[in-house]
Amino acid sequence: METVLGRYRNLIILVGVLFLQVLGLAVQVKRTSDAESTRLIRVWAVGTITPLERGLVWGQTYIGNLWHNYFYLRGVRAENRQLKEQIDQLRLEQVRLNQDAEQAHRLQALLSFKQRYISKTVAAQVIGSSGSDQSRSVYIDKGVSDGIEQGMAVLTADGVVGKVLTVFPSTSLVLLINDQSSGVGAILEKSRVQGVLRGTPNGEVMLERVMSDEQVAPGETLLTSGGDQIFPKGLPLGRVAKVAGTDSGLFLNVKVKPAANLGRLEEVLVVLARQEHQATAEGTGRVRTVDIMAQRLPSVPDKPAVSAGSAGSGVPRTAANDGAATTTGKPQSPTGVKPQTSAPFVRPKPIESDATKPQGSISMTGVANKPATNPASGVTSAAPPKTVTAAPGKPAISRPKTVTPATGTPASEDDSH
Amino acid sequence: MPITYTSGEQVEVYRFSAPVTVGVPLLALFLQAFVPLRFPFFSIFDLPLLVTIFFAMARRNPVSGLLTGALIGLIQDALTHRAIGLYGIAKTVVGFGASSMGAKLDAENAGARFLLTLGFYLLHSAVYFTVARGMVSLTLDWSWSRGVLAGLANAAVGVALYFVLDRFKQRT
Predict the structure, then answer these.
(1) Higher pLDDT, A135 or A311
(2) Is the ipTM of this complex over 0.90?
(3) To the nearest whole percent, how much of chain A has pLDDT over 90?
């Protein structure tokens, strides 16, 4: 017996070591979440390797800053002048964008969209990678002590990078969107086709679950859809690089070029918190099916002369009053506007010059607000009301559409059917 | 006390100091995790594998070779988000094979080192691929062209690296 053990000693040890590792793998595979079972090993390994990486990155940054801030100052004066000019231009641009943003917020409120805003982020430096092509992930220098939690979104100025997968005391592992185990809810900017963005084994990024009859054009921008509850809606994911059919013919193979340069990540932003609120508005009466159907029907072309008091087809329909069709229901979350109690017939306030005030809305209960009118052009203002009632579980009725009344005729006082 | 167990008489058996035994694998793991951030093409190399092969061939002891491979592989696994043991199993097999081959062949010249490294790289890839697909159900694409090219690149770097690491060898 001893002779056999001595002769095959090396082989027996090999089989034993392999058996132990296979057993460990089997245990990890069996468990749905292996994060806890192997956490100690990972903490040790990361604790051994990342201090070196952190130190090297710190040294690199320090030397780089020393060089650029104290020695290499050539052209700084000219650059400063250019930047000041750029700031002036950006200020003008900012004013315009603020107006657009306010309008967009109002429109979203009209549609009762549940909005999510990034309210708090923390900047982190990428200090290392997993070192394996089979695990496309990076380490950042922020961890539990900085408020990082598992599942937080990670971004750059260019677009989405990935999400926090594992959190350690002072570092975190970020799973990149080009890893084959990642998935991001995505939507094409123009065609509004939705799909799931996934990584492939060779590090490419593909948009999956897109039916073959959808129109997807190369070059189209891909955004986050927000459906995964991790990434806020509307963040850039990338551009469509190539579109091809699959073998089955049911789905399209959409190859995507990521917006963020995943191969050369240096600094990232981790989304610590998101502000969430639901659009609310004043509640009025109940919605009848016939009212909903009437709103969805094509509108009758305007007649040149419609009496102000006439009901039905003579009402000028605007994006504002279409979208502002109020319905019954309690406000779902506060937005700073005190909700009114439900009242079946509420006469709206008169038109005010302030664009944030309700200016044109058709109540589903028979009350119509007067739309604001641009006297110069006669175009009905699309300025929507600041708040709108959205009944719980019932969609706000909207159909963005602007109709030009002949003389800026005010809306009818009664739209009941 | 030398860390040697081989009974080979024709081949030289080497040992390494403790700082080298611990430091070189850690340095390889660190470089493998850090350099691809700045130079993405570097991810084609597998420095921990090259270090495993070097130590296994120099010590010429199957047990120390497989244990070295297992430890380096497990740490490499721990840095990824995959299950721990994929690289561990692959490098255990390579460590055992390299030390066994080192005890039978003269692995001191560049040509033999190049061919051995190429062969062990392919063996490592095959074991990893098999375990990843068979046990963890990972979707991996096997490409002979990419495998051979990466193997050649690793073998070339390995030969240069081995000559550097030869300086740390200590005769028993």
Answers:
(1) A135
(2) no
(3) 20
Q: Do A263 and B40 touch (CB under 8 A)?
A: yes
Chain A residues within an 8 Å CB radius of B136: 25, 29
Confidence tier at B5 by pLDDT (50, 70, 90): very low
**Cβ-based neighbours of A174, under 8 Å, separated by 6 or more:** A137, A138, A139, A140, A154, A161, A162, A163, A164, A165, A268
Report yes or no: A338 and A401 within 8 Å, Cβ to Cβ: no
Q: Which amino acid is at A79?
A: E
Q: Where are the domains of chain B?
A: 17-33+41-171
Confidence at residue A299, expressed as pLDDT on a 0 to 100 scale: 56
Residue-level pLDDT at B131: 92
- Whether A10 has its CB under 8 Å from any CB of chain B: the answer is yes
Model's pTM, two decimal places?
0.65
Which of left, alpha, beta for A282 (phi over 0: left; psi -120 to 50: alpha)?
Answer: beta
Per-residue pLDDT tens digits for A177-226: 999 888 999 999 888 888 999 998 888 999 988 888 888 888 999 999 88
- The hierarchical CATH code for the domain B17-33+41-171 is 1.10.1760
Which DSSP helix (H) or strand (E) runs through A127? Answer: strand A114-129
Domain regions of chain A by residue span: 74-113+279-417, 115-277
For β-strands A194-199 and B14-15, DSSP reports them as unpaired
d(CA A43, CA B109): 40
Among chain A residues, CA nearest to B27: A49
Please report the residues numbered 119 through 138 in chain B whose beta carbons come closer than 8 angstroms to any beta carbon of chain A: 128, 131-132, 135-138
What's the mean pLDDT in A321-330?
Answer: 37
Residue with tokens 């610590």: A272
Say if residues B52 and B95 touch (Cβ distance below 8 Å): yes
Determine, for residues B79 and A130 on separate chains, whether the beta-carbon distance falls below 8 Å.
yes
Q: Please state the CATH superfamily assignment of the domain spanning residues A115-277 in this structure.
A: Rod shape-determining protein MreC, domain 1 (2.40.10.340)
Q: What are phi and psi of A388, to 5 degrees?
A: -150, 145
pLDDT for the residue numbered A319:
37
**Confidence bin at A95 (pLDDT 50/70/90):** confident
Interface of A with B in 29-58 (CB under 8 A): 29, 34, 38, 41-42, 44-46, 48-49, 52-53, 56
